[in-house]
Known about the structure:
Elements: H1 11-15, H2 18-30, H3 36-63, H4 66-86, H5 96-119, H6 127-158, H7 160-168, H8 173-198, H9 206-213, H10 218-247, H11 260-268
Helix pairs in contact: 2-3, 4-5, 4-6, 5-6, 5-10, 6-8, 6-10, 7-8, 8-10, 9-10
Amino acid sequence: MDTTGTIPISNYQLAFTVLLVLITGTISAVLKLGLLRSLIWGTVRTFVQLTLVGYALTYIFNINNIWLIITVITIMCYAASRTAVKRTPNVPNYPYLLAFASLAASTYLVGSIVVGLIISPEPWYSARIVIPIFGMLLGNSMNGIALSLDRLYGEVRARAHEIEAMLSFGATPWEAIRPSVREAIRAGMTPTINSLMVVGLVSLPGMMTGQILGGANPQEAVRYQIVVMLMITSAVAIGCLILVGLSYKNFFNEDGALKTSVIQRDKKN
Length: 269
C-alpha cells in the first residue's frame, strides 16, 4: 500500500460531503434553530469561493511575481479587517483603517520573519509558501483583534465612572484606561493561548493534518505545526496590541476627558 503522496478526491466523492450538510440541516430544521437558510447559503459559498480560489492560486503560483503576491496579501488584509469590524456589533462606526493597519503590520512583520528566516524558500517570495503562511496569520489575527476590540469597548463602558474618577484625580487618559486595555488584549489572546495548551493532546491542527494526509513525515509535519502555532500567537499578540494602542484615544476628547457618547451609551445599557 502506498503511504506517500496525496490521496485524490474525485468530484463524485466530494459530492458525498453534501450528506454532512443534510445531517446538520435536518438538526437545524427539527430543532427550529433558524439556521437552515444560512447553512445552505454558506455551503454554496464555500464550494464556489474555494473552487475559484483554487484556480486563482494555481495561476498565482505559476506566475510567482512578488508584486502580485503583495497585492493579493494586501487585499486579504483589507477583507480581514472589514470582517473583523463587522464581527463587533457593539463597536459602532469603527474606522476600518485602524483594523487594516493593525492586521497588515502584524501579518507582514511576523510573516516576513517566518518565511525569510525560518522556512527560507527559494526564491524567498515563493507564492506557494508566502500566501498560505500569511493567510493563516490573517485568519487567526482577525479573530483575535475582533475579540480584543469588542472587549475594549465593553470594558470602557462598564468602567466609565471609574475612568472618569481617575481622570478627575489627575490620571492621564492612558493611566485611566490601562486596566481596560489589559483586559482587551487578554481577551484577544486567550483563544490562541488555549490552543497552545491542548495542541497535540486534544486536537491535531489543520496544517499538520494536511501535511500528514499529503504523505509528509509526521515528525516533519510536527515541526511545521510548531512554527505555525508560535507565529500565530505572536501575530495575534502584536495585532491586538497595535489595534488597542491605536483605538484607546478614540474614547477621549481633545481635553483628555471621556467622550459623552461613551457615557451615554453606558447609561442606556
